[in-house]
Amino acid sequence: MPKVGKYCKAYPIARFREYKGWAEKAENVKKDHLYLQENYVVTDGIFMDERVVFDDVTPEWIDFCKNTLKFEVPVYDEPVMAKNEENR
């Protein structure tokens, strides 16, 4: 079963190609945009483990994603119900 992560963000392919170490798996590129997953793998769909286009996750790649693409995984608050149960 395909794995859906908690967060991914779509970017035009051209943005990823700005990275000097970009080497896509062309057989998986079928659209004008790709998805940057929370684990910094790039896919051609919303699933983290299918149609992987780029998976050479290095400190330089993470830096590019954070500083050039401004990619940031949001921090979600705990549901109110969970907080209330802790106080019991």
- How many separate domains? 1
First-to-last CA distance: 37 Å
Instruction: Name the shape in a single word.
Output: globular
Helix content: 10-25%
Model regions low in confidence, pLDDT < 50 over at least 5 residues: none
What is the chain-wise order of helices and strands? EHEEEHH
Taken as a percent bin, the fraction of beta residues is: 15-25%
Rg estimate, integer Å: 16 Å
Number of helices: 3
Assign the structural class, choosing from mainly alpha, mainly beta, alpha/beta, alpha+beta, or little secondary structure.
alpha+beta
Tell me about the largest β-sheet: 4 strands, antiparallel
Q: How many beta-strand elements?
A: 4
Strand order of the largest sheet: 1-2-3-4
Global mean pLDDT: 88
Q: Overview of this structure, please?
A:
This protein is α+β, with helices and mostly antiparallel strands. The chain has one domain (about 10-85). It is built from three helices and four strands; from the N terminus they run βαβββαα. It has a four-stranded antiparallel sheet with strand order 1-2-3-4. A hairpin with a 4-residue loop joins strand 2 (about 35) and strand 3. It is globular.
Layout of strands and helices, then pairs:
Layout: E1 8-12, H1 13-16, E2 33-37, E3 42-43, E4 52-54, H2 59-67, H3 80-86
Antiparallel strand pairs: 1-2, 2-3, 3-4
Structure summarized in a few sentences:
Helix content is 23%, strand content 17%. By secondary structure, it is of the alpha+beta class. A hairpin with a 4-residue loop joins strand 2 and strand 3.
